[in-house]
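From the shared-data thread, chain only:
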Amino acid sequence: MLKGWTEITVLPTDPQLKQIKLNCRQCTLGKVLVNGKVPTLKYTEPYSRLRLHETATVNQFHMLQAKLAPMVKDPPDEELIITLPRSVKIEPTDPFAAAAQNALLGRYVPGSHRDSPDVSGGATPAPLLTTRPDVSQPAFTPIIVRIEFTVENIRDGFHFVGCDPFDQRFPHAYTTHSPVPGSACAIFPCIDDVHERCTWEMEITVPRTLGDIRKAARSGEGAAEVTPGEEPHPEEVDEYSDLDMQVVCSGDLVDEVVHSVDSTKKTLSFCQNSTIPAHHVSFAVGPFEKVNLSDYREVDEDDAMYAIAVEVLGYCLPGRENELRNTCMFMHKAVDFFVRDFGSYPYSSYRLCFVDDLPTATVESASLSLCSNHLLFPEDVIDPIYDTTRKLTYTLAAQWVGVSIAPKEWADMWVIIGIGYYMAGIFLKKLVGNNEYRFRLKKDAEKICALDIGRPSLYAQGLRVPIDPEDLEFIKLKAPVVLFILERRLTKATGSLVLHRTLRRIILHSTSGELPNSELCTQHFIKICEKLSHSKLDTFFAQWVFGSGYPRFEISQRFNKKKLVIEMGIKQVQATETPTRRLDPAEFMLDSRAHQRGVVVGPIVPVYSGPMTIRIHEADGTPYEHVVNITEGYTKLDIPYNTKYKRLKRTRRQKERAAVAAGIDISMDNQADDVLLYCLGDVLQSEEEIQDWRIEEWSKEEEERMGQESFEWIRMDADFEWICTIALNQPDYMFLSQLQQDRDVVAQYEAVQHFSKTRESALVSSILVRTLMDRRYYYGIRIEAAFALAKCARAELDWIGEFHLRKAFQEFYCFPNSPLPRGNDFTDFTAYFVQKSIPEAMSHIRNNFGSTPLTVQKFLLDLLRYNDNSNNPASDCHYIATLMRALAQTLITIKGGGQDGYDDDDGGYEDFEDRETEEAQMAVVREIERHQRMDQWVPSYQNIVSEVALEIKRELMLHTTRLIPQNLQEFMAYTREENLDKLRMKAFECLLDLGAIENPIITKYVLYVIAHDPSPYIRRGVLVLFMQALGVLGISGRRKKKGGEGDVVKRESRDEMIVEETQDDGKASTANKRKEGLARETISGAMEALKKELGEDAEFRDAIWEAIGSPDLGILELQSLLDICKLLYDEKTSLIVVMKQPKRLCCRNLGKGKLSFKWQPRKQLVLLDRKVPPPPLPPIAGLLPPAPSPSSLPVQGLPLIPPPPTPSATSAAAAEAVSTPIPNSKKQHSQTPQPSGGPPSLTLKLKPLGSIAKTPKNLDSRGREIGGGVPRTPKPSPSMTSGGSGSAQVKDRDRDRDRDRDRDRDREQVYSTPPSSGSQSRAVAGGDGGGGATGTVSKSSKKSKGSKKDRFMTPGGGGGSGGGGGGSSAPAGVPTELSTPSAHSRVKAKSDRHGSSSTSATAAAGTPSGAARQSSGPTGGGGGAGSGSAGAGAGTPTTARPMVVPLKIKLKIPGRGAAGSGGGGSSGGGSGGGGGGGGGGGR
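Structure, as tokens:
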């Protein structure tokens, strides 16, 4: 948990400022003050909104995407809006200042898009990026906003390591900011915009020592003091308890004091005077060890730098100081180089802090770089040197361009990244040499040509915010190479380092304030380049920055002896011969997102224009350069020839070879007339060596042909000014001259690449082995020659390539005349890299069947078995890993590897009958497993040996299960949290490559790790692997398909291939499979196939939806999972509302008017139909009640009976059942549909049967005679009064109605249940009404003491149910369910005329109540009052018609009421039913 406060000083630019908008996420706000006054807040925590209703499914993913969109856009929406109090006035500091006058007159133009005087004012927002106002002299008094906050559930922005009880690592914490908007506001309120800059002051309070953290963890408080007599806990006493906690922050440390309240804490204050955006403020807290890397600076270097020397500090966890020194020992040189070449350092010092679980390799912030511990390596490890050095150098260069200078728009990200890596490359050129620098640039250019097919341009890559990691990696690859070729062209045109001057100018403008807001855009960069080079660069940037693709040149040349010119044709074929981009699983999600968004890649540039340097090495050995300007698709050139002499160099070479063969020493004096002094690759020249190495020389015919040539070789694009592919029709001996005599490493690389692609021969193998054996070549050229030699290992050439590779390895690294290797000696790094490359190259040798020869396999096995590293100061873990990979490669049969076109469709192994071969393969597997077990006991650097072992087993399981059966459990064991992060990641990679995504259990596990793993490095890395696995499934389909009808089965043998079709229409089946395969080659087809594979998988759907709901997911991970859902599922905008069911009270009719109420388990509630009811039925003659007195009007909520129609109803109509909802209105009594959302009404459906009685014609709608008074109640017969006697007490309804309505408005409810049909029987005389149910005291009544509401809600004795009708009645035991949202009935306190408190159950006069079903005969009367007096009853003749009768219960609470008796009914068409039972005594 983080607890803190932020104080923001706002400099108003408008006196009408009303609101301040801030970004604030996952924070719980405390006290907020504006100039000491409490403002009005509007705070919407966005993370709490990232959830849907409980019934949401994965098809509602778009609803989450809509909620997530404001958080990832640029700039992000503000979550915290502070409305200034009225007492806070914005007053000018100087009323007579020009800025104040302009502001008051409304002419002030705000300089930031954040300026918003009023949200509701309708003001037009300023442009996205504008010049900030000059705040050096503020026009108005500042406003100070202080916000106290707490962050508990941290999802983004900050990460804790080692704080879990089971995590044994050192506890430390750090910020995890990224260029994505909204990363900094997750830990403190701020304006989290990449374009908003300000100065910072930070105070961080932390425990003083590592032991104080453990004390606080034990106590559960912020800190715990140890009293003088108390002994510390045993877990708190160890060698690390006294380690001081260090704070590394983006700023200068100005103060460190002990906390004023808690002595176990300390407070450190930092200050950053340079203006930086919020996401460039970082800090880390932990028991770090501090290393001053400036100590590596020599004395003379320190004196030379003097005042501009920058202090470089490194921080690491305990025990890793030596690794930190070895990894960062060059940093002081890099800082000094950048300061001298590009300008002063923008901050006071530079710090590097290495932490665990960092999602990326580095995070750049102001004066601080957070780096992953994966970059640290000890002194005895060689392989990570270059890559780690390049990454750390870039983090340093980003302090100038990247942090101090930021992109103005996201589309300008390419120029920021490109300049940073260009600066890093210039330093590496000085550090490791020009050959390494140019060789790696050439390799990067080739990689660009392979990837830049169907991609957006460099500029368009940044238009998609946030930038996808794959796009970011492509920008890092291409942008520095584009700047390199720009530098080459500008240098040749002007003769000066124009790009260096451009960068110095940009950095100087940023420091001096001339660069607005220190933001660089593409147009500004172009403008400065054009100004310094005095040339227009629109064409260059249109092709290489705003355009996509690359040129492809086909070049033809011919020497014209008559004209003495070289006729050359340069043709651009990229518009017609650019290969189609194949789908890559690593970029499948990127392509699918672009396809869904409708991103269209621009057309290929048909013609590239620009200068190209052509260097022709003529016969006298002199290189002649010709610069041609290419402007058309086909350019024809006539290049003049200068040399008058021919073949001088060839003659000199022949003389030199003859002298060497004769043993004659050629002195310098004797070779003055000859031009060629020496060339590379002139080893293995003696006759003995030629025979021993089986060297093949040029034939006489080829020597004669070489003698007729007028020039040695031609170099196209000799100055590396293009990113392109070039096909030049030049004979092999010219490429040999280029390889041996051109000192440019790029020329040598191009020559080796030519020999690797040309037709294999013994002569080519001889050329390559001489290149490999010559130590004067750059080691990268020798490695390329080794891999090219493997292609010459063919049976028709007597395996000459294999012989040369083995011979070279034995010559360099084995005992004389023995295949056993000598002890390792890696002191020479170049020799070490060559030693690694030869076994790897030999593993690519294949015979005609695509398998590795047994001799190669045994040779590599012996190298691994007899590897000796006992006397080597360097580690051999990477060398062992290379040998293991090479051995595993020999076990795999290459599909289509033979020259006879043999196609091993299963990609598996040959079923060799040779027992020796099988034993050799098993020996290879045992040796690999032995090294894997050894790595468990003696771990290698970052468990590299175990990683390679897992890779090997994955490859073997992918191809066959004969040697190693497929066992996913082994990989699952390596995914546990106690393993190293990189090893866990490799295990997840192997699982997903083996088709684990097709296993529902493992898929759930992988998604659980993505959602809940404590390491952000694992979460983000496994998510990337998971998306790649989806790409494999969409592009290639399921790895294993069960055989069935229609499948094509192929069987191979060594002699023939037999294809068997399992159906008669096998051709159609094959055609369908081919059609499906072709469809998967397009992004739309692959997306459709993937949707078909997983779209209907219920387990996958539930697992990914559960992962999306994880509270631990960050914004980037959540966005990626939602993109997967968009790919697999259709959008469905729906909302299933699940209402909380009310409690259910079950009522059972015990007979004789007795009801039993009991709580039953909750069942499904059947809601009434809320539709508009049909027109009400007319009243029925004979059922009209007697005219009530004014005090006995119908209770509220009951519908009034409309005027009676003529008695023309039939018995058929009487048999229909009608169910009409009761209106829930206390003011209206008309029959209207009940509003949705109100409490349901109790509806009873009656189904009367029998004859139709006549109704008096002189009655009104209330049962009164027209012109008469209140109808008299007929005297009950003896049979009808057997249930009890007494006079009914009647209240004045008109007098008490208004008072009762106002009192009971909040307590009355009308309940409704589904109607239940009663039984039908003949008319019989009704009996007495049963006694009322005795009320019980509810739990709520026991707890309420003095609460008026609770007292009224306490049920007393319920009134008795109405007696049965004269017709059919419901038999005893038929339950009537009462749906009620509480345990109480409707309650109303009443007093009778005598003033005694009683409980009454009242029914409308003449209305049948209870469970009885009225049939033919008179209607039973209402139940009597609960005071013990007899209830009055009345009966009237009725006509049997279906009708709806509402039941309304009123209860009077206080006191004990005596049980009253029911009144009798009068005689009608038959014997009337008994009156309602007496009220039960209240309790």
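Residues 469-494 form the longest helix (26 residues).
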